[in-house]
Design brief:
three-stranded antiparallel beta sheet; four-stranded antiparallel beta sheet; alpha+beta
């Protein structure tokens, strides 16, 4: 059984949680999200605290899912109250990004510009003068997935360090042929 799932989640002020059977809906200042809870798990609310418990008769099969659903519920509560954001930086000569309508236009050293459609629920900030792209939204999985798609357009290479990387990502550099010892 998960140790973290034993700790009840605290609801921030301005966040409402409604549990209707196996469907949990959370509304907050940033928006609303809902998720389906697995059969055999109960969501209980005590004032400003929310806890997940295994229903009777499901102990052996559902304790493995308890930590997963606790983390998913925690991410939903954090998403509607604070939101999530990922920052990416572009390293390379001529690398730039701009937003054109509903598309993110990336110029990453290819002979053609690359365009990615921005999904609903995600906001992207990109400036031609800055090498930083900021992806933000209320759904942690969706924010991380779109940031990963942007990074996959030009992954950072280990010799010069050029490419698109997360801000703060540590890149393991390699020595080229000139750095080889005899």
């Amino acid at each position: 059984m998960s140790r973290k799932a034993k700790v009840p989640l605290k609801l921030p002020s301005g966040v409402e949680l409604v549990c209707d059977g196996s469907m949990v809906s959370v509304k907050g200042p940033k928006g609303a999200l809902s998720m389906q809870i697995s059969k055999g798990l109960d969501v209980r609310r005590d004032g400003e605290f929310v806890s997940l418990n295994v229903a009777d008769g499901y102990v052996l099969r559902k304790t493995a899912l308890l930590g997963l659903y606790w983390a998913l519920l925690k991410n939903i509560i954090q998403g509607v109250s604070e939101g999530f954001e990922k920052k990416l930086e572009m390293v390379g000569v001529g690398y730039r990004a701009s937003i054109k309508g509903n598309f993110l236009d990336l110029q990453l050293g290819y002979s053609h510009p690359t365009q990615l459609e921005i999904p609903k629920g995600i906001s992207v900030q990109a400036d031609l003068k800055s090498p930083i792209i900021v992806v933000s939204g209320i759904d942690k999985q969706q924010v991380g997935q779109f940031a990963s798609e942007i990074r996959s357009m030009r992954k950072p290479e280990p010799y010069r360090g050029k490419g698109v990387r997360y801000v703060g990502e540590i890149l393991r550099r390699k020595a080229g042929k000139a750095g080889k010892k005899k």
